[in-house]
Amino acid sequence: MDAISVIRTKRDKGELSPEQIDWVIDAYTRGEVADEQMSALAMAILLNGMNRGEIARWTAAMIASGERMDFSSLSRPTADKHSTGGVGDKITLPLAPLVAACGAAVPQLSGRGLGHTGGTLDKLESIPGWRALLSNEEMLSVLDTTGAVICAAGDGLAPADKKLYALRDVTGTVEAIPLIASSIMSKKIAEGTGSLVLDVKVGTGAFMKNIDDARELARTMVGLGTDSGVKTVALLTDMSTPLGLTAGNALEVRESVEVLAGGGPADVVELTIALAREMLDAAGIKDADPAKALRDGSAMDVWRRMIAAQGGDPDATLPVAREQHVVTAPSSGVLTRLDAYDVGIAAWRLGAGRARKEDPVQAGAGVELHAKPGDTVTAGQPLLTLHTDTPEKFAYALESLEHAWDIEAPGTPFTPRPIVLDRIA
Ligand code: URA
């Protein structure tokens, strides 16, 4: 077996054999296949695709590159959720404690933001004292005692994916559906969850800009999960405009706590409850009412215990950025579009995100929305507030917002896009 023949097979639109896939993933993880060879293969996969059998084998080989976790000692069924990433997507924060309050165990291995999409761990790290890095034993203990844990995946879980994802990120090969599907599902299957709900985002602020690509990604992932014995369901959800009224780390924690306190923006509450129902159903819990668990404070109780168990102070004051800049509506009328991607780029440029994996993020930076698509606005009223510790970044962030919205004549009819666009089971 050698790397060049594997690359040539895919370059010439051939099917990779199971032996070729097993060998190339293992040899790449061990450093025998060089980064430049793997990037050539990733580009050939991006251009020529893989069939379902190849994707399944690729995923299995990535799982086999590391350890598998085991939650069979827990008394509750496990349910996990994975979002393909968006702007203002803080759903994991209220969702994990909510589903735990309804009777499931929620092992939520999460990531950091890269580019314009935020990362759950960056958001939670704005809570003073909170720790993302737990040993496997600590993770199991938090999960067992509180019902939910949100933490970073350990180095032992699918190490082939860790290496390959970093390579794809710098070689323009992230957007290949077989590679995205196998990357996400290898980690989820290795994690050992019994059931999984995928939130596949569609729209300008998502990886998948159109619904057909999102459906193909969702079907591929649901197939991989199901074939591995993980009960898997996907919701396709709208990411044409930011979720909720905030994009940024501490800003999104604050909004998540509002949801857990029974308030918060309607779209965040609707999606949180829709995903909670799917997770509970997939975990076989039939008689729970997630809307009630938000109203009666039981989800908030789990949140407080979960944060404290990871060293965080749930009562601590969250960081606030040193400087603010208000963007006002230039005219009166109906806000018919507020673009998720543009707002995500602005939040990133203000310091909420990072350009390279090792960059620090600002806890208080981000964008606050004062209106959502469908709202009537008056010229001069605040539309957005930009937050940062580094005011020299305002001009750069404002550039990304130049074409971020449309305000049409007063009375223009507006049909809201549903949040949940489709369901794939
Ligand atoms: N998230 C992942 O974990 N992997 C991808 O390839 C894309 C998003």
Strand order of the largest sheet: 1-4-5-13
Estimated share of beta-strand residues: 15-25%
CATH architectural name of the largest domain: 3-Layer(aba) Sandwich
Instruction: Report the count of strand segments.
Output: 13
How confident overall, as mean pLDDT?
96
CATH superfamily of the largest domain: Nucleoside phosphorylase/phosphoribosyltransferase catalytic domain
Quote the distance from N terminus to C terminus: 38 Å
For the record, what CATH class of the largest domain applies? Answer: Alpha Beta
Ligand types? uracil
How large is the radius of gyration? 21 Å
Relative helix content = 40-55%
Low-confidence stretches: none
Based on secondary structure, the structural category is alpha/beta
Number of domains: 3
Q: Name the quaternary structure.
A: single chain
Number of helices: 16
CATH structural fold name of the largest domain: Pyrimidine Nucleoside Phosphorylase, Chain A, domain 2
Shape: globular
Major beta sheet summary: 4 strands, mixed
Compressed to H and E, one letter per element, the order equals HHHHEHEHHEHHEHEEHHHHEEHEEEHEE
